[in-house]
Amino acid sequence: MFDNTSVVSVDKNQNIQPKKHQSLYQKKKHTFDIVLRIIIYTATAVTLITLVGIIGYILWNGIPHITWSFLSSPYSETRDSMKGILPMIINTLYIVVITLLISAPIGISSAIYLTQYAKQGKLVRVIRFTTEVLSGIPSILFGLFGYTVFCILFRLQTSILAGCLTMALCVLPTIIRTTEESLLAVPGSYKEGAMALGAGKFRVIIGIVLPCAMPGVLTAVILAMGRIVGESAALLFTSGLSYNMPNGFFSQIMSSGRTLTLHLYQTAREAASPNALNVAFATASVLLILIFVLNRLASLLSKILKKG
Amino acid sequence: MGILMNNLSTQQRLKKINWIKRIVAMIFGVGSVAMFFLPYVQFIFQDTRYVTTGLDLLIASGFRVETEAVSALVGIPVLIRISVITGAVFALSGVALVFFQRPVLAGVSFMISSFTPLLVLISTSGIQTDVIALNISNVKVGYMVPFVYVLISGLVCAVLSLSTQGTEKLAKAVFLTFSCVSIAAVLTITVYIFSAGIPAMAQIGVFRFLFGAEWNASSGQFGILALILASICGTVGAIIIGVPIGILTAVFLTEIAKPRVAKMIHPAIELLAGIPSVVYGFFGMLVIVPAIRSVFPGQTIGDSLLAAIIILAIMVIPTIVNVTENALRAVPNSYREASLGLGATPVRTIFKVTIPAARSSILSGVILGVGRAIGETMAVIMVAGNVANMPTLLGTTRFLTTGIAMEMSYASGLHRQALFAIGLVLFIFIMIVNISFTLISRKGAKVNVR
């Protein structure tokens, strides 16, 4: 009401017809708004359609070919009857487990040091900066580094172990950052309470801080798992492309083996027959399902963290 | 008096526990030394089995491998000899140091001895390499009990002897050591990439390398201008397509959609971010490439810069949506209320108030997207055609990343060094992106605080 009268009075002084102007202005604004709204809806629709398109396309073509024998038999390039992915599943499992065994203790401990011990000085800033730099380096450069250092310099050849060492470098920043965030989220009063009861710093960390931040630490590990499962460029030269059936833990990690992602890459490139393409589709579906499960697990854990 | 007595008795108990720890550590340490003389590693060439003790590994000149075709002496790598002897020596010195009550030094020396089996593990593959060079393909390495024992007992002894010093110090030392590993890693990578890339650049000539139009490994022409331009064009194209879509999707999720709807869509976007790049490449290969081929019949084979741009745009969207969403949510509600109170429509408020307020955070999201697009390899390799042409929208192209990935497996000599130099160029690109990201996100934080 107030607005209206003031507008009218101003207009009267300047001898401008208010009604016409106002309606025109409003009309213009309205169409502009609608256009922008439509653009926003379209953009969202494009994103969602792409998502549904990609996932639907791959699952639609892939899931019918996921059979028990596909999951549990070895692979052969020449024989059509042997197109299973068991070796790739085992290789992926080895790489995930060994990489996490190397990088999870290092990552979690450095996150603990950064948040609980370090004075916020130069060293902390250097470590923060380096983890940031590490997380920005493209995986092909990790692959290049891993190939020349682990495979050639350490004479590991293209082997699963070399792949694990390379991947450990790749996922370190993810683990450090996520763990750090969850450790910082633990209320200071908890720590102070424990310290007031006479517990030492290490006691406080092991007994109070880590248990409180556990869902966050697990999220970090699961995110790292997702990254390892999805990684391909860093493993192309380091863990190699062989698809032999593993016959022993040590001999397998010292020899080359392809993961699920590299199997998808290789079968997709070589696919000459529709049958070979089906193998690629089924592998892609397995990968998508794996990633989906890991994703759900991570967000479930972060929900628990928020509640706690 | 009673309290004092109590204190005395706990102190005595602590002393006793420390004595026990020391004795256990010494027993384990002596065990490590003894293992030096027991079978350590076994090698199986063809059908013959060589069981070697630590002493053998140190003294023997090598393995005599004899088949019908070859008869040769396979040398033992120096690293193995060194690590075997250091393992034993440091275990022994650890025992001595525990005996003379120097727990910290003892801990360090036990730690070093426990790492030596890992060095042996790494360097035994050197033997495998040599054997494979003799055309004997099946060589197996078996690790025996002492191998595992030295590793575990070293760690146990280190922890035991350090813990006599109090858990607090032990814990702090361990945490600090681990956090230094990440610095060491990034420093090594940086130094390595520079030291591996610079020689080739110097040999080819920086100008000829960066601005040479011709890449032909077989005729020794290493100019990467086409690769650089392709990477830049691909990234810029992906950003031009992906950024508006990403930002508008984030706007929809934070400003327009009901919370219930946003909660349903958000995990989907997260999933989009988690899909492996090979899967994107696979999708592009089977859907986007044929689509381009049929839209422009006769002009292109489908594998093209355009296909790479579209795939990269799809891959960049989730990054931008996530960052923009967070940025928009961080804008104080009072801004929106003030704008609405002045009579602006909701849409006007979004574009004139909310987005400008979150500008710098959104920009840092865009830069993250740029980093992701420049560094992407596998998706691009599957759709871009990989011929080192000057980039045209419908022609085949090769990016910096794919340039490395395509030829790494068979390159040698100057060719391989040139690939490292490409890696260096890529690294510099990423560093520029990274540093501008840090600068901008710092600025963004300042704005938010104000």
Protein described:
Chain A has 308 residues and is mostly helical. Chain A is 79% helix and 0% strand. In chain A, helix 6 (139-153) packs across helix 7 (160-184) and helix 7 (160-184) packs across helix 9 (201-230). Chain A starts with a helix and ends with a helix. Chain B is 75% helix and 7% strand. In chain B, a hairpin with a 2-residue loop joins strand 1 (39-45) and strand 2 (48-53). Chain B is flat, with a radius of gyration of 31 Å. Chains A and B meet through helix 2, helix 4, helix 5, helix 6 and helix 7 of A and helix 4, strand 5, helix 6, helix 8 and helix 9 of B.
In short:
The complex is a heterodimer of chains A (308) and B (450). Helix content of chain A is 79%, strand content 0%.
Topology (elements, then pairings):
The complex is a heterodimer of chains A (308) and B (450).
Chain A: H1 2-14, H2 18-62, H3 68-72, H4 86-117, H5 122-136, H6 139-153, H7 160-184, H8 188-196, H9 201-230, H10 233-236, H11 249-253, H12 260-270, H13 274-307
Chain B: H1 2-35, E1 39-45, E2 48-53, H2 54-59, E3 62-66, E4 71-75, H3 78-99, H4 103-133, E5 139-143, H5 145-163, H6 167-204, H7 206-211, E6 215-216, E7 221-222, H8 225-256, H9 259-274, H10 277-295, H11 305-330, H12 333-341, H13 346-357, H14 359-375, H15 378-383, H16 400-407, H17 414-449
Number of DSSP E strands of chain B: 7
User: Considering DSSP H and I runs of 4 or more, what fraction of the residues of chain A is helical?
Assistant: over 70%
| Average predicted local confidence, pLDDT of chain B | 82
Helix-and-strand structural type of chain B: mainly alpha
Instruction: Report how far apart the termini of chain A are.
Output: 49 Å
**Shape estimate of chain A:** globular
The largest β sheet of chain A comes out as:
none
Radius of gyration of chain B, CA atoms, in whole angstroms: 31 Å
Query: Helix amount of chain B, in percent?
Result: over 70%
**What is the typical, i.e. mean, pLDDT of chain A?**
83
Question: How are the strands ordered across the major sheet of chain B?
Answer: 2-1-5
- Number of helix segments of chain B? 17
